[in-house]
Specification:
The protein has four helices and seven strands, in the order H-H-H-E-E-E-E-E-E-E-H. Helices cover 33% and strands 30% of the residues. The strands form two sheets. The protein has a four-stranded antiparallel beta sheet with strand order 1-7-4-5. It has a three-stranded antiparallel beta sheet with strand order 2-3-6, with no helix packed on it.
Length: 209
């Protein structure tokens, strides 16, 4: 009598197939991350000295690099951050209705009362309703290093003013724009540095060998 072995095939259910698939994905991710970490540690250990050396050479040679650039590019990069210059700037914003009367726009007016060229000026506006709730906020470019289309309005000359308008963005379309209060906050200021001007702290640190 010949004995036969009975083979039983068990079909995987949907849940068991999902569990096996997730387990395979997790195992592959763990193996890949482990290999990447080991390779990164090996690369960092062998190249750390070169990376530090390249960074040091770049910092020490930054003034020479700026001098070697074309005048147009070099002048644009020859500026410094100056938060204290905000005392010489007046930035106001108000809402003006659109021509169709169904919406509104933010009208900005900026005055540079100082004697420095502002190469970069950014502001943040906050819209507040009668209940004191913030219903909108946005960031705007008032001055940029160069003038181009769209929001690149160019530098702001000394003793000059500028006007521009931007769309009004509200979080809730049911808010009435006519009853909103506009608050303006200066977020960044950079002024142009002349060739014979003593560099600021950041420039002095960059030029120290």
């Amino acid at each position: 009598m010949n004995g036969t072995q009975q083979i039983v095939y068990r079909k995987h259910t949907f849940l068991s197939a999902v569990a096996m698939g997730l387990s395979s994905v997790i195992i592959v991710c763990v193996l890949c991350c482990t290999g990447l970490i080991i390779y990164s540690m090996h690369f960092a250990g062998g190249q750390a000295g070169k990376i530090v050396s390249v960074a040091t050479d770049f910092v020490n040679g930054a003034p020479d690099i700026l001098k070697a650039l074309p005048p147009l590019v070099g002048d644009v990069l020859n500026d410094r951050r100056a938060p204290s210059y905000s005392a010489q700037l007046e930035v106001t914003a108000q809402m003006l209705p659109d021509r169709d009367g169904e919406g509104a726009r933010l009208q900005f007016q900026v005055a540079n009362n100082g004697d420095r060229l502002v190469t970069l000026l950014t502001v943040r506006t906050t819209l507040i309703n009668a209940d004191g709730r913030t219903v909108g906020e946005s960031n705007h470019w008032v001055a940029t290093p160069i003038a181009a289309d769209r929001d690149w309005r160019g530098p702001l000359m000394p003793k000059s003013s500028r006007r521009f308008a931007c769309p009004l963005h509200l979080r809730d379309s049911d808010d009435d724009p006519s009853g909103l209060k506009v608050e303006v906050e200066i977020t960044d200021i950079r002024i142009w540095t002349e060739a014979n001007e003593v560099p600021g702290p950041s420039q002095a640190a960059a030029s120290t060998p």
